[in-house]
Structures are given as C-alpha cells and as structure tokens.
C-alpha cells in the first residue's frame, strides 16, 4: 500500500470536523487559511465564526470599515493579515465582481496570498493539482524521507513541493493536501510524536535511523530585540482619557494605544516622571502613579515588549476625551485590550 493511500485512509478515519472543510466555497476557505497562518486551530476557530457571522460574504467584508475588521481580529496578532484580508476582499468585490480567481497562478496575484495560501485555495476550492507545503508538510516529508535540507533555506520550498507533487493523486489533490497537513498536526507533531502508533512506523526513514527528533532541520534563528514601552493613562476631571492611532509602519499598524513613551531601557519612576512632565507640559499634571512596577513582557515573533502603564491625573478636561465605555469600542493590541478589560 503506497504512501498516499495509507495517508488518505488515515485522514478519513481521524480528521477533525472543521467548518471550512465542508465546503468548496473559496471565501470561507480563504478566511480560514489567512487566520491559521500563525495561529492554532483551537485559537482560530472562534475568530472564524465571528468573521463569518459578521461578514457572511466577501461583499460584506469588503463593505466593512477597517476598524470593524481590526476589532474582530483583536487577539489573533500579525495584524497585517487582517488589513490585507480587508483590502483583498475589496478588490475581489469591486474589481472581480465577487468571484475569486479559480487557479493557483491568479490567486497568487492577490494581496496577502502567498504560495501556501494560493495552493490551499486552489486545491480545496477547485481541486487543482498543486501541493500545499506548510510547516506540517515540511515535517512529515523530511522525517519520512530523511531529508536534511534546512527548511528555512531558499531552496527548501521548491524541493519539498516537487516531492509532494510526485505523491499527490491527480484525481483528488484536495484530499491528499488536507490529509498530509492533518497528519502533521495530529500525528507527526513537532515534539515527542507517538511513532509506535503510526501508520508509517515500518517505512519512515527518520524512525529507522532514530532521527525523528532531529528533523526537520531549521538553522535560521530569529534575532529578538527588546523594546520598552511606557503607556500613559491620562485621566481628567471627568475621568476621561486619551488614545491615539498607530500610523507608523511596523507592529500594530492602525490599532489604537494610549500615549506612549518608548525608552532604551526600563526606567525608574523619577526618570519617567520627568519625561512625562517634559513631553506633556501643556497639561496641568496633578499626579503620576506607577500601575505595574514589574513590566509586562509581551512576546512577538521578532521582539519582546516590556510594557509599563502609568496613571497620569490632570486638572481640567481633555479635549475630545474618551470615556470608559467608548474606550472599549476601539481595536487595541491584545495586551492593551486586556489591561482595559481588567480596569
């Protein structure tokens, strides 16, 4: 019995019942693939339902404003995914009459859709014979065939795609692609896979050579930078506060935040108090208090944010100040959302 047949038989017996698998409609397939790019299924599922309830069609998503989209996305991270999703929905609705491209090459031209996502939509929605290569697929193939190519290298995608293309049944590529991804997610997991109870335990090269924990090879290490954020929670005579939109490119683009002082290192109360009084000398500051003496460390893929909140009481009223109820309607990074909810 060959690899593909064993794999698809396993899938039909073990697959999870996921809503985007019960359709060939490219819209929910696309939504799910964008959401799950950097997110586990369990975490992504509630967001998928929120989006499909709020925006049942690509036209509904296209007609939403960006803040609505970002608010629903809040907590999923990698917010550029949400902004690209929204812009692509507008392009499909307004330029393509609501009809998704029906092949891999044309899907690849859409904003926010890379090789993996284009292949997923093309095979799942249109049954195009194109291999889907994600982290799960890299792991399954590298172990089964004992491939030591660094999966972070430029040539890896091409090499693994070629192997997957040889294995993929031409009459049902969608089933094979779903199967190999699911096998990597449930059986051939990154750490401590249960190889004794695996359909490939007689034929997996890595298992025979005792190399399962060494594969796949990934040599490139992300360089992590540390940043120090001091958020100022202003409060006036009406208990109103002030927020601002992050318009610079980079993390959290177009999300909201409190006024921010970023420092080179973690600063003490005296230093921060002076900075606040200097930067906001146009307001009559009555008191400054440290909300959390110990920084909250918020880890992103390439940077660690050390976050402190400072309560700043001012005399008078803030022009266009925002009350506590209004505050909760804006899209914030999840670390700020959690802070607001806990207040």
From TrEMBL:
It is an enzyme of class 3 (hydrolase). The keyword Iron applies. It catalyses: Hydrolyzes free adenine bases from 7,8-dihydro-8-oxoguanine:adenine mismatched double-stranded DNA, leaving an apurinic site. It comes from the Bacteria. Binds 1 [4Fe-4S] cluster. Keywords: 4Fe-4S, DNA damage, DNA repair, Glycosidase, Hydrolase, Iron, Iron-sulfur, Metal-binding. Residues 35-186 form the HhH-GPD domain. Gene3D superfamilies: Helix-hairpin-Helix base-excision DNA repair enzymes (C-terminal) (1.10.1670.10), Hypothetical protein, domain 2 (1.10.340.30), Nucleoside Triphosphate Pyrophosphohydrolase (3.90.79.10). SMART domains: ENDO3c. Adenine glycosylase active on G-A mispairs. MutY also corrects error-prone DNA synthesis past GO lesions which are due to the oxidatively damaged form of guanine: 7,8-dihydro-8-oxoguanine (8-oxo-dGTP). This is Adenine DNA glycosylase.
